[in-house]
Design brief:
This protein is of the alpha/beta class and 363 residues long. It contains eleven helices and twelve strands. The protein binds adenosine-5'-triphosphate.
């Protein structure tokens, strides 16, 4: 039976996190009656300010609430002057990623008519791609595992890279399934696996596993390409890509490269997805330079909420949620294309609340 009610764990966090979060939940509130679904938003503490207040950046109760909810909406966390006792940054999002095994980092980037990105070529208006980053192994396996070798001048630092069959298979399957869903919505249905198989044993293994998994998706087109060539082609002709899947470190770098195509940090949504849980957050940070001014662009947070609707729609076979996702997207396309609002980061003077209201009214 179709579920009519969804509980959402809301972690607004620090800086502009709470500002963009309230814009996203307002838009979702406006959607409820239109699609005949109800969202219950429960707000939980976490982040740098909460660390200052309580000594705990991610309380156990917040993590438990994330597990109990249908999905997690996450603002942004961390403040420049707040550090843990060992000097490291307060980044609870990394802890949540590991605790909930959110292995797929999903970063979609698309152009919006009316908002000019940095590329002069008119085909940049057609950019619509998704990068899927493996979140749990690859070169990031080396985190806290590197070691020093030799003495004096011969000293060297070694960081190992780990690629497992299981870890690679599940991220490739995720990307292939995503391409299939996108194809059903009229997108090309093409997956590019990004590696460096000409140099590294680990990457040759990645390519082999990708090709094995891809053979089970005859309805899709796919190719494998070296990361250096992909970096070049992403700048030269980004409009030719659909879904990319890659190792953790390559994904870290390429996801920032593609974020630039949108023309502003406030336009880049993201999701961290596992088999059981999923978290949706804008790709940007807490932006302390503009926090409290009411000028943050809430679009990345709202588009992250759109990704949440699509994920819930798939998980619960609830097409009303997917309809809601398209309605928000269409409304956002319209308000930018018609110049109803123009975010500060694009040289306009529409604040957070004004953009939220325009998108909500457009529903
Ligand atoms: P982090 O390390 O958490 O990514 P950061 O300071 O490096 O933090 P952001 O917080 O994303 O990165 O900010 C980078 C720049 O982008 C800042 O100038 C900020 O004001 C701007 N920015 C980020 N998000 C938005 C937004 N939603 N709307 C407008 N400007 C934004």
């Amino acid at each position: 039976m179709t579920q009519k009610y969804y509980s959402i764990a809301v972690l607004p966090g620090d800086g502009i996190g709470p500002e963009v979060m309230s814009a996203a939940t307002e838009v979702l509130n406006g959607l409820q009656s239109r699609i005949g679904r109800r969202f219950e938003f429960n707000v939980y503490p976490a982040g740098a300010q909460h660390y200052l207040d309580s000594g705990d950046a991610l309380p156990e109760a917040t993590l438990d609430a994330c597990k109990a909810a249908d999905a997690i909406l996450f603002g942004s966390m961390g403040l420049p002057h707040v550090r843990a006792k060992d000097g490291t940054e307060i980044i609870p999002q990394l802890d949540i990623r590991f605790a909930l095994d959110l292995y797929a980092g999903v970063r979609p980037i698309r152009s919006f008519a009316g908002l000019k990105g940095p590329l002069a070529d008119p085909r940049a208006a057609q950019i619509d791609l998704v990068l899927v980053r493996e979140n749990t192994e690859g070169l990031f396996f080396a985190r806290n595992r590197g070691h020093m070798e030799g003495h004096g001048d011969a000293e060297a630092a070694i960081d190992p890279m780990k690629i497992t069959r299981g870890g690679t298979a599940r991220i490739c399957d995720f990307a292939l399934n995503l391409a299939r869903q996108r194809k059903a919505r009229g997108k090309p249905g093409h997956v590019t696996s990004v590696d460096k198989a000409n140099v590294f044993l680990s990457m040759a293994f990645w390519r082999k596993v990708f090709e094995e998994r891809a053979s089970a998706f005859p309805d899709l087109s796919k190719d494998s390409a070296y990361v250096d060539a992909v970096a070049l082609n992403l700048v030269m002709r980004p409009w030719t890509f659909d879904v990319l899947v890659t190792e953790n470190m390559f994904g870290d770098i390429l996801s920032d490269l593609i974020a630039a195509f949108a023309g502003g940090m406030g336009m880049a949504p993201s999701a961290d997805i596992g088999d059981k849980y999923a978290l949706f957050q804008p790709a940007h940070g807490t932006a302390p330079d503009i926090a409290g001014k009411g000028i943050a662009n809430p679009s990345a947070m709202i588009l992250s909420a759109v990704m949440m609707l699509d994920w819930l729609a798939e998980k619960h076979s609830d097409t009303a949620l997917a309809d809601g996702a398209r309605a928000i997207e269409t409304s956002m396309e319209r308000v930018f294309a018609q110049g109803v609002v123009r975010p500060h980061e694009f040289g306009g003077n529409s604040g957070t609340a004004e953009i939220m209201r325009a998108v909500a009214e457009g529903l």
